[in-house]
Design goal:
The complex is a heterotrimer of chains A (240), B (266) and C (591).
Chain A: H1 2-24, E1 33-41, H2 55-58, E2 72-73, E3 77-78, E4 82-87, E5 99-104, E6 107-109, E7 112-116, E8 121-125, E9 131-135, E10 145-147, E11 154-156, E12 162-168, E13 175-181, E14 186-188, E15 194-197, E16 203-211, E17 215-223, E18 231-237
Parallel strand pairs in A: 1-18, 5-8, 7-13
Antiparallel strand pairs in A: 1-15, 2-3, 4-14, 4-16, 5-6, 8-11, 9-10, 9-12, 12-13, 16-17
Chain B: H1 2-21, H2 35-66, H3 84-114, E1 122-129, E2 132-137, E3 174-176, E4 179-182, E5 186-193, E6 198-202, E7 207-211, E8 217-222, E9 227-232, E10 245-251, H4 253-264
Parallel strand pairs in B: 1-5, 4-10
Antiparallel strand pairs in B: 1-2, 2-3, 5-8, 6-7, 9-10
Helix pairs in contact in B: 1-2, 2-3
Chain C: H1 2-15, H2 22-27, H3 32-62, H4 71-74, H5 86-105, H6 107-122, H7 130-149, H8 181-210, H9 223-254, E1 266-267, E2 270-271, H10 279-313, H11 320-333, H12 349-377, H13 386-408, H14 411-417, H15 421-451, H16 457-483, H17 502-532, E3 573-577, E4 580-582
Antiparallel strand pairs in C: 1-2, 3-4
Classes of the chains: A mainly beta (240), B alpha+beta (266), C mainly alpha (591).
């Protein structure tokens, strides 16, 4: 009677493993959309930034920093892409935690800062030199403000959605973005090109992916009860 | 009162002159071919002026001391010769200085601004903007790409507004934040401004020239000593004026060639 | 000559009775003496504002990280936390220069003292056009208010310097903080100021040529009158050029014109919608005014110092005709040298040599004048009063300032010194110190005539001695800084090669604060003496000119019932006269 016992054990083992496997690869919770942003073609070469005129910043970087307008990663991943819900949003809570923007080593950190309308923004000068931050807003109020070293942080808010280029009036190489959105459903890709949007109730949505150099693309996505298939954005890169 | 005045003026004159003579605060060493002429002119003027300055102040002090007060026994006197010696001294002395300094000075000036650059000069395109300088080299193809102000994109380091997508000569242009030149080679800068007026001043080279928006202004020099020298802006251009500078790096020919190669490969 | 008779008759009619109402007597007065005092009052307010601005500037330059108490309340965005931002420094500097050059140095020695004393010194009852005169003051007053308004607009006061070079000053607020409404107000204020000055100059010229009393030939006019006359001729032409220049600048800013703005400029990442203009055009227009302007600032000082010195050396000045000839020569040559501010501007380098020669030649009449003053002291019987001390100090500082000009007049040396503190030291010596000394001398000298009381002489002498030391402490070191290549108009010195200059900047700051504090002696003296000073007689200094023949203070029509008759020039000192060692211009004896 050994064979029938082994057969039962094997069956139980199989069933058990199958259950375990099923449990481990839990399907994505309903209401999450994730994906990747990649590029085809040849992206432009990023250039090293020479901060010779500002030695107090230059010495903060062991090797010169590179420009950040096209940041790529393995497998043609594209970074600094803002992916957000541009239509179909069923309601976003107002954001109250402050978004922090640093001027550090004569760079804007992060390069692209995303915030919601009326969300507080705090701008810090961590450097030994004066900066004058100048967000070039068109729909919102345009202003610029100097911060000598040790000055208190600047508090700002934007009340209209807008993609605002930010420059420093003192250091021409410093460029960044304030992305002001009305939705709370957004993500910014890193060098892996990956993004995840959570907390989306079932419905039809339009996702927009924005890159400062390669433009915008949209895709429709429907969020159901089950897992939503991953969304892929592919941008066409040109060397110049 | 007269004695106090005389003492004050005499002390002030002597102390002031002492600091000039001692070169306590002075020009940096001159590292350009034409700089010697300027230094010579400056020293000539300083010597002549110094003598006149001390003489005038001490004479003033002495006269105030000597002719103070209302002693009835002392008759009033007029300066011997009346105003004529004054007119003569001023016209002759100043006239001689004016003529010699103008003649000598004009040669120095002409050498810098009225003489065309050596045809074999290394040409470098200079752009001044709020608040940095950028320098452009023609790159391996030896040609400068065209400039398009509407294409300027600082975030991607396209400071000059080059159009590499459509303009092949622009693709290998080398843009640098530092002015790197080989020693003892004539250099011709073609200077333009992107936004407002700026100026290009290198104390060590004894050169200075304003940028005028709308114009391209040539400026040439030859550096004689390797080293790192500051280029500063002397034309008020906005809030960052005080922070607008770049470095001139004078390298040996070998070092310069290596630098150029490294830049081309970036 | 009937128009002269008619003018004199009209003025006599006007001055017959003093006006009744307070407003007509003290506010909208047609009396040149009241108008002169109003100008002086305006200049006093302006110099106080300008001086405070300079203290703030020097505090920041000497101690850049200093949080200045109260500054963040005054300028919440320009100095959050009390530390001055670069743009605030530059706007304070712009307003300091503008206020001092226009509302102090052009107003006090010329419009202020000139208005009060020119008619009296020529023996007239008032200026030729009393209504124009009143208007000229109020127009200047409005200009001052418009300028001060720039401090209060949201974008702040302009930061392009008192020279307001285009395109920085012309493109509008893209060019940065301070370049919004503040710069437009600056342009409007200066244009309005020009109108006031033109009205004033017309008055001075007409009065000098037409209203001199019997016997007052041009050759018998006092030095100060000659200086005011020459200054008003220069002013007429200079301000007539600045007025349209400012209008064009304002048009570029608000009406979309492009007089001074070329095509293709990218500012704040925006391509500017202008084309066809020339930044150099602004510089030529500005300096065509700007150079004569600095002689407008100093020539009255020449006249005032000569006038006061003559009364204190108790002998005639050396070479009176030569001295007046020098003033006229300087006035004439002032028109052909403006390019020396522009040697490196990008204008044709050949013109640099053309401008350099007359600039160097101006040294000759200036040197002759200086030698004549010094030579006049030979064999004199010098009386030391606060007024004469400031005159002697004027000679010393004018020598200092003039000699540094000698360097800058040569283009090859200017290559190195342009845009450095050497220039700042130079122009402060000749304008900020020499012209100011002229104003101080005039105040101590003429205060008794204007207010009937003496200023305190002891305080005045202390004021002089400490100020002389202070100003040399501030401005002589700037020449050393310039020689070391220290650039001007910098809000901080971050460059490597300028680090060794920082201690010298701190020394200058301390000297500036010290000198500013010393001016309290002058202010206190002024206010105290106005109400409590000892009574002054009609001719306290035993001087010869017409203002001393009339009562202290003068009656509304200056000379009462009789018109003065002049028999001699203003230089009759050291001769035996009925009252002492001098003969007044109206003394007939021995004529």
């Amino acid at each position: 009677m050994r064979r029938p016992r082994m057969a039962i054990f094997a069956l139980v083992g199989l069933l058990g493993s199958a259950l375990l496997v099923l449990a481990a690869t839990r399907p994505p919770a309903a209401g999450t959309v994730s994906g990747t942003v990649t590029y085809t073609g040849t992206p432009p070469k990023m250039k090293p930034i020479d901060m010779a005129k500002e030695p107090s910043c230059a010495k903060q970087h062991a090797t010169p920093v590179m420009t950040e307008n096209v940041v790529t990663g393995p497998n043609n991943a594209l970074g600094w892409v803002v992916v957000y819900v541009s239509a179909g949003d069923q309601g976003s809570a107002a954001a109250t935690t402050a978004v922090r923007y640093d001027q550090k080593g004569c760079q804007y950190v992060p390069h692209v800062a995303v915030m919601q309308t009326n969300q507080p923004l705090e701008i810090y000068n961590d450097d030994q030199t004066s900066h004058n931050i100048h967000p070039l807003a068109k729909d919102n109020a345009e202003w610029n403000k100097s911060q000598p070293p040790g000055a208190p942080p600047i508090h700002a808010t934007y009340d209209k959605p807008e993609f605002i280029p930010v420059k420093c009036n003192v250091h021409p190489w410093m460029h960044g973005y304030f992305i002001v959105l009305s939705t709370s459903h957004y993500a910014v890709t890193g060098e892996d090109g990956a993004f995840t949007l959570k907390g989306l109730p079932p419905g039809k949505y339009t996702l927009t992916a924005w890159h400062e150099r390669f433009g915008t693309q949209t895709q429709e996505v429907t969020v159901g009860d089950g897992a939503t298939p991953p969304v892929k954005f592919v941008f066409k890169a040109l060397p110049y | 009162m007269g004695k106090l005045f005389a003492l004050l003026v005499a002390v002030i004159a002597i102390v002031s002159t002492a600091f000039f003579v001692m070169h306590t605060w002075w020009m940096p060493p001159d590292v350009s071919v034409l700089g010697e002429g300027i230094d010579h002119q400056l020293l000539e003027t300083m010597t002549a002026s110094g003598v006149l300055f001390v003489a005038a102040q001490l004479t003033l002090a002495f006269f105030v001391w000597r002719f103070a007060g209302n002693d009835p026994a002392r008759p009033i006197k007029s300066f011997p010769g009346g105003p004529t010696p004054m007119v003569v001294i001023a016209t002759v002395l100043v006239g001689i200085e004016v003529v010699t300094l103008s003649l000598v000075g004009s040669k120095v000036w002409a050498g810098m601004y009225l003489t065309p650059a050596d045809p074999a000069s290394l040409q470098i395109d200079v752009q001044a903007e709020q608040f940095a300088y950028y320098f452009r080299y023609a790159g391996p193809d030896g040609k400068f790409g065209g400039l398009h102000p509407d294409l300027i994109d600082e975030g991607s380091s396209n400071f000059f507004g080059l159009d590499p997508a459509n303009d092949t000569t622009a693709r290998d242009d080398i843009v640098s934040s530092s002015l790197v030149v080989p020693v003892n080679k004539p250099v011709l800068l073609n200077m333009h401004a992107k936004d407002v007026g700026h100026s290009f001043y290198v104390p060590a080279l004894r050169i200075q020239q304003d940028f005028v928006p709308g114009l391209v202004i040539p400026l040439h020099f030859t550096a004689t000593t390797p080293g790192k020298y500051e280029i500063v802006c002397t034309q008020l251009c906005g809030l960052g004026h005080y922070n607008m500078r770049a470095f001139l790096e004078v390298k040996s020919q070998a070092d310069y060639d290596q630098w150029l190669k490294d830049q081309a490969n970036q | 000559m009937t128009h002269v008779r008619e003018t004199k008759a009209k003025i006599a009619e006007l001055k017959r009775e003093a006006p009744a109402s307070f407003l007509r007597r003290y506010v909208f007065s047609l009396d040149h003496k009241v108008i002169g005092k109003q100008y002086l009052g305006l200049a006093l307010v302006a110099v106080t504002v300008g001086m405070i601005l300079s203290w703030l500037m020097r505090l920041h330059l000497g101690y850049p990280k200093l949080a200045i108490p109260g500054l963040s309340t005054l300028y919440p965005s320009g100095a959050a936390g009390g530390v001055m931002t670069p743009e605030l420094y530059l706007s304070l500097m712009t307003m300091h220069g503008t206020i001092m050059v226009f509302f102090v140095l052009t107003t006090a020695p010329f419009a202020g003292f000139g208005n009060y004393f020119l008619p009296i010194q020529v023996g007239a009852e008032d200026m030729a056009f009393p209504r124009f005169n009143m208007m000229s003051f109020w127009v200047t007053f409005v200009a001052f208010l418009v300028l001060l308004a720039a401090f209060f607009v949201p974008e702040g006061a302009p930061l392009s310097g008192w020279t307001a070079y285009a395109p920085l000053s012309a493109v509008g607020k893209d060019a940065g903080p301070g370049q919004g409404l503040g710069q437009t107000l600056w342009g409007l204020s200066i244009a309005i100021f020009c109108i006031g000055q033109l009205l004033g100059s017309l008055n001075f010229i007409a009065t000098t040529l037409d209203l001199r009393t019997k016997g007052m030939t041009l050759g018998r006019m006092p030095y100060s009158t000659w200086a005011w006359f020459i200054t008003s001729v220069i002013g007429l032409i200079a301000f007539a050029v600045l007025l349209p220049a400012c209008i064009l600048l304002v048009l570029d800013r608000v009406a979309g014109t492009s007089f001074f703005i070329p095509a293709g400029l990218v500012i704040s990442d925006r391509l500017q919608p202008h084309a066809g203009g020339s930044p150099l055009l602004w510089q030529h227009l500005f300096w065509f005014f700007g150079h004569p302007e600095v002689y407008i600032a100093i020539l009255p000082g020449f006249g005032i110092v000569s006038h006061i010195l003559a009364a204190h050396i108790r002998k005639p000045l050396l070479g009176p005709r030569v001295l007046i000839g020098c003033m006229a020569a300087i006035g004439f040559l002032s028109y052909v040298v403006w390019g020396h501010h522009m040697f490196l501007s990008g204008m044709n380098p050949f013109s640099a040599m053309l401008f350099s020669v007359p600039t160097l030649i101006i040294t000759i009449p200036a040197t002759i004048a200086t030698l004549l003053w010094i030579g006049s002291l030979y064999g004199a019987k010098l009386r030391f009063t606060a007024a004469s001390l400031f005159c002697l100090g004027f000679i010393s500082v004018f020598v200092s300032g003039g000699i540094s000009g000698f360097f800058l007049a040569q283009p090859s040396i200017d290559i190195y010194l342009h845009g450095t503190y050497f220039v700042v030291g130079h122009f402060h010596f000749v304008m900020g110190v020499a012209a100011m000394f002229g104003i101080f001398a005039a105040t101590y000298f003429w205060f008794p005539k204007m207010f009937g009381r003496f200023m305190n002489e002891t305080l005045g002498k202390w004021h002089f001695a400490l100020t002389l030391i202070g100003v040399y402490g501030i401005f002589m070191p700037m020449h050393y800084l310039g020689l070391a290549g220290n650039v001007r108009r910098y809000s901080a010195f971050t460059d490597d090669y300028m680090q060794s200059a920082q201690p010298l900047h701190q020394f200058i700051t301390i000297a500036a604060l010290f000198t500013g504090a010393v001016q309290l002696l002058f202010f206190i003296n002024l206010i105290w003496s106005r109400f409590r000073g000892p009574a002054a007689p009609d001719n306290p200094w035993e001087a010869t000119t017409l203002e001393w023949t009339t009562t202290t203070p003068p009656p509304p029509n200056n000379f009462g019932d009789t018109h003065p008759i002049v028999y001699r020039g203003p230089d009759e000192y050291g001769v035996k006269g009925p009252n002492g060692d001098y003969l007044m211009q109206t003394d007939p004896a021995g004529a």
